[in-house]
Amino acid sequence: MSAYVEIDHVDKIFALPDGGEYIALKNIELKIKKGEFVSLIGHSGCGKSTLLNIVAGLDRPTHGGAVLEGREIRKPGPDRMVVFQNYSLLPWKTVRENIALAVDTALSQLPQGERRGIIEENIKAVGLGRAADRYPHELSGGMKQRVAIARALAIRPKVLLLDEPFGALDALTRGNLQEQLMQICQANQVTALMVTHDVDEALLLSDRVVMLTNGPSAHIGQILDIPIERPRHRLEMVKHPSYYSLRNEIIYFLSQQKRAKKHQAPPVAISANSLEKINLQLGFIPLTDCAPLVVAQEKGFFKEFGLSEVTLSREASWKSIGQGVRSGRLDGAHMVAGMPLAMTIGAGGNGATAMITAMVLSRNGNAITLGRKAQEAGVRTAADFKTFLAGSTDHTLAVVHPASMQNLMLRYWLASGGIDPDRDLKIVVIPPPQMVANLKAGNIDGYCVGSPWHSWAIQEDIGYTVANDLDIWPGHPEKVLGLREDWVERHPQTHLALVKALLMACEYCDDPRNRWEIAQILAQPDYLGVEVEYLKPGFVTDYPQGFSATPPSPLAFHAFHNDRANAPGRAEGLWILTQMARWGMTPFPKNWVEILERVRRLDLYGEATRQLGWPDQEPGLSTFTLFDGIPFDPNHPLDYLQQLPLSQPVPIQEIVLDQPDSSLSLVA
């Protein structure tokens, strides 16, 4: 994304009277496109207005900086205009005179007649033509705020900065002004940054909502894209299929932050038991297979291994997970299996970040779900689905992330039936909790996702399972523990403690006697926030049969520990690389051995298991097959690619791995 406004690793530290320091903002990084409307939301004291003031030039960051069109912001200027909550009108001047003061000062180079035209144009834009000669004490609160907006827009700023501009207004006035502001911004392609406490206001006006954590050391906890088409209207917004799921994500984030205030850990903690760090922030997505992290937290495994301050951060999407780990906001995370590889080689265009995974957290757990139209058409196989698609390219399936097993296995299944995933239909990325709503609304024809979001469609009677993981590739790696390579190098003992705690949690998850208890924990608002009945299929009870020969048992469908489930096999990683190359996400790396050695750290997995007194078992590079019977020989990955349906020539390049955190380059 090309940045019009860039907030570059901003810290803001205030000196305290006792000689200490208060860190208000920590490592704020944000890029805003031209014409984009971005809202900042968070609890009082999280630094929203401080950040706005830094962009306005009214305050200076302690570290980092803000940039507008390539120039660092060092002081206030007419290219940025602030609309405050308290209007800030001069009481001895009329509406017209208040606006004229700004225009005559900022645009003094223009002829007087042109300036008058600008003043009248903006008075008309906010509907104050009849009140142009009134003084502020003769205006209502809403009218005063319209004057402030008109004054700000009249000087033609590059960026409009709004600090809770409607917070003091009644609901009706606020709604009308929101509509007016939205229309003006759209008509003039205004770039805007707004501070608000109002979730509905943020959803209505914004292209993205940036959510800040609690202070001290407040940082961006989550960024939520608002993919609702424009123009928008307040009364129509609530009918959009994504509206309530988006709203719930913001509310949930704010609720989490409110609870976090009660037991907020110090920003840095060093233990006395040889661990380099004991306070960790670990990201997860609300899926059944986040169970190892939740169990390690709730059953005390983290504390057992000296990690006394672990916070689990529920994230909105896998994109947010990747950004959080890349930026250092998260120490580590529950990741889709291909993410550490994709991040290390720079697939996806986000730059390269050297990653490692020393353990697999779960295996299986996904299903391909299709909607009622496909069910009524009798679709049972990929070949059936090809017939269903015939004659139309207006079909859409959803996955959760390009490097996810959901995407790679869905594509594999489609291609086995002669369907080209990139030509015969569209595959889009949707966060897991939004899948059901989009299927119900008819926005997609189906999806591949983890539990409970696939079985939910069955229970809601809006879809069915045409194939699950055990039909396609039983025992494939699904989620892994992902951490930055440089983080592990700085915290080797902490990392081993983390792996050991999660290995213990995985063992606990694969004891069938514990599954019902775990389901009840996962159902809690802090984690998945769903009815426990939705979590049972495939986790506590047999998975709904669909068109499988037999219903998969819970221990087979959700595998966490048994049969060497936690070993990060390199052959599996290589299969992932072949599929990413097959679908054009990356060239196939000539130096795939080096990459797998770098990312899939069986040595660290082995060290952790040995310290636990467990067998140090590592899978070899043996041949295996998926459901179609085509053998994958990890010693000859290119031969395998050539055997696959719809095979195309795949570019082969060496991906140069330099030092940790350095940019990775491609060498032909």
TrEMBL record:
InterPro entries: AAA+_ATPase (IPR003593), ABC_SmlMolc_Importer (IPR050093), ABC_transporter-like_ATP-bd (IPR003439), ABC_transporter-like_CS (IPR017871), NO3_transporter_ATP-bd-like (IPR005890), NrtA/CpmA_ABC-bd_dom (IPR044527), P-loop_NTPase (IPR027417). The keyword Transport applies. Signal peptide: none annotated. It is found in: Cell inner membrane. One of its GO terms (biological process) is monoatomic ion transport. GO terms for molecular function: ATP binding; ATP hydrolysis activity; nitrate transmembrane transporter activity. Pfam families: ABC_tran (PF00005), NMT1_2 (PF13379). SMART domains: AAA. Residues 5-239 form the ABC transporter domain. NCBIfam families: ntrCD. PANTHER family: BICARBONATE TRANSPORT ATP-BINDING PROTEIN CMPC (PTHR42781:SF8), SPERMIDINE/PUTRESCINE IMPORT ATP-BINDING PROTEIN POTA (PTHR42781). Belongs to the ABC transporter superfamily. Nitrate/nitrite/cyanate uptake transporter (NitT) (TC 3.A.1.16) family. This is Bacitracin ABC transporter ATP-binding protein. The lineage of its organism: Bacteria, Bacillati, Cyanobacteriota, Cyanophyceae, Prochlorotrichales.
